[in-house]
Amino acid sequence: xxxxxxxxxxxxxxxxxxxxxxxxxxxxxxxxxxxxxxxxxxxxxxxxxxxxxxxxxxxxxxxxxxxxxxxxxxxxxxxxxxxxxxxxxxxxxxxxxxxxxxxxxxxxxxxxxxxxxxxxxxxxxxxxxxxxxxxxxxxxxxxxxxxxxxxxxxxxxxxxxxxxxxxxxxxxxxxxxxxxxxxxxxxxxxxxxxxxxxxxxxxxxxxxxxxxxxxxxxxxxxxxxxxxxxxxxxxxxxxxxxxxxxxxxxxxxxxxxxxxxxxxxxxxxxxxxxxxxxxxxxxxxxxxxxxxxxxxxxxxxxxxxxxxxxxxxx
Length: 314
What we know:
The protein is of the alpha+beta class. Helices cover 30% and strands 25% of the residues. The strands form 3 sheets. The protein has a 9-stranded mixed β-sheet, with helices on both faces.
């Protein structure tokens, strides 16, 4: 599979740490030390998960290497839907006006990006599609409890869109060499550590330490697995994009893998935790810096303890 082009969308409103100092007395220094976050983006009142996704897709269309009408599959991914019936993917299809193609949405917490791409892989393997649009979007501030001193300050909003084809389309395509996902819901406090129950009080993280510990186990482990599956070692890796949940987790992951800090790509410092969109946004933000032949690994970990890694060769 090949990533033909990628884009992202970020809301314009920036929320600095002083906002949380004013409402719940968390200092800027405390937030930065514990999470790495200095600021994050917040969707406007007239924005939602679907509108952000559509904005990312509209940006994508500016550099699409073929007609949008050749897209024969749309996969959406989010755990913060605007509408649970008219899904993210269907909203995108309506905007694009591409009729009569498979359109599905998936939610596997912050791992949803890789599971969405894995769905594309399945459709390609079955011969049911050849050019897919993957859209990831999370509107965390629509669900979070900003007064929660444990996790209220973590969240940001954003979206990204990727055009993926079964066969190479241009010389600038990035090749998806290997994709591995899994669920570790049998580990630790997986089913209660991070939850979003709409009838309760939004996103809460009662067992953040357990999340931290398991993320620091599974992301390095699956990153090594995806490299080994392609006959590569950690020395062949040029960049790592881990799920943007906590900068301390990212640093722990690269230390475990023995990767120097300059190979780490991170945007949590200025975007916060943008959920399943975070890694795709980081890939889009940095696409111009990657050189031909370089190897990138995206690795994710989400609530319910979903996890995965994807090896990309530029």
